Amino acid sequence: MKGDPEIHIALMEDNTFPIRILFVLACLNDSYAEYELCVLTQHLSPSEYRFDVVVCFEESGNLCGGNIPLQVLGIDVDCAPYNLSFEHTVNYLRQKLTAYDMIVSCQNVADIYPALEKLQWRPPLIEFVEFSNETRTAPKHFTSRFVVKSTASGKIISADQFESGVQTSETSFASEDEIVSAWRSVFEDVLSERCQAAKPSVFSSFIQGGFECSTHKRADGRRLDLIAATEHDTHVFGDYHQLRLHGITTVRDGLRWHLIEPLPGRFNWSTLLLMLSAAQSTRTQVIWDLMHYGWPDDLDIWSPGFVNRFANYAGEVARVIKAETDVIPFYCPINEISFLAWGGGEVAYLNPFGTERSFELKVQLARAAIAAMHAILAVEPRARFVHCEPVINIVAGSTDIGDRLKAEHARQAQFQAFDMISGSLWPQLGGQPHLLDITGVNYYSQNQWVLGGGAIRQSDDQYRAFRALLTEVYARYGRPVLVSETGIEGDGRASWFEMIAADVMAARKAGVPVEGLCLYPIIDHFGWDDDRDCPSGLMGNSFESGKRVEYGPLVDSIADFVEKRLR
Predict the structure, then answer these.
(1) What CA–CA distance (Å, rounded) separates 459 from 464?
(2) Are residues 228 and 183 in the same domain?
(3) What is the per-residue pLDDT across 451-486, written as a single tens digit (0 to 9) for each?
(4) Is 306 within 8 Å of 295 (Cβ atoms)?
(5) Lesser CB count within 10 Å: N end or C end of the chain?
């Protein structure tokens, strides 16, 4: 939670979203594909199916304007590739495809297979061609179905065995209703063939609790310590035990670096040892945050010495934990590199209060995280790492091609920290693929917005279901996923959890290995800016009979999920 005031949202009652299907066209030319897409749009309910279009090539005389039939029907037609080279179009498609439940490639568009090649997970691909002989020369290793429209015979082929093993068949039609019926059958068959993810196995519990552990400084110079503010430091045994009663045996918790190493090389392990003792006595698995926005007072984060100091601290933490327990340790080296780089390097919201230095700070934090992981692995080669970053959706406020590209550029920045750690961006920092171990995603109600505008409401066509954001992260990196933070303030807590949990299970059904869901914060936190009591957790800041008061509706929702969905 970032200390924002309570945000009221209208949650969809059944958390159902339409099946999103992207038609990829080579060009706009009043083709068979455009005609049948118009038929589908007119006959299928938008609450059941949502169709979008991306066009890869601008044919002379066919501009992407608001008066083309597809856009008149309300279909979003993305012509951003008009301004892109083939290579950049492939990359643009790679970024776009994972937002959809399936892809329909039309007119033998050349860009689709190179884009799919770049993904670790791929949405099902249907290839829609005009003549059956086109299927014999097309690549087939990603294709789930061929749909063949023969203008000569007036037939759709959609489901028999082809020589390649790709399914096809022939169905005569004479009406729009039969076209719709044939396509609906194809959509349903393709979706039913998806393989769901394997049973979660990384963590001791799927539902997890995260303790707000921010230790940054505000603009007025005051350092926050949310662990102390919520009295988790003195009630850690009871807090872990209370969560265990709800089946929550994995938690995220924080080490307060400024208390552990107040001076260079001088360590006070009392706070860590107390938490380790609590974890062992309650058999709680902990993901340790090494830095949650804060660092010792004497340290300049912009200096080269910051990286070495953080790496040394991380290595010493690993030695203490290894000496105290034989379990495989989990670490989050630096929480939310992206948010800290923005808040501390761009808008001076929190330390180090920089402006126009966000990328520089992101690079510095990534260097420090990489160095810390190497220091930890030198002590404990079994160590696992969870990298927790916000997942967001940013869209353009218009259909203008330039606006679309600006919005997409801004949206893609969310992946820079992961890319630096894996070595695919700025490899000189020392990132390597194996260091991007578990991708943690932090998601709140304010994580989707219009570039230069306001929030995207869940009922808006531009809203992306959380399951699609999870899918994109997995498709990009192919690593296990943890929902490392999610929650909301007020009476919407139970409904928010149910929505997120349903999306998590939908993503798992589609093959995305989501390994856990961490409610954050698990204890009502205090506002960063005004110290107000924010009712956001499963447990509160008041006690009855030695236990924290619990929020009943969320208790019931968690119990129902564990009983019915995790069996």
Answers:
(1) 10
(2) no
(3) 999 999 998 989 999 999 999 999 999 999 999 999
(4) yes
(5) C
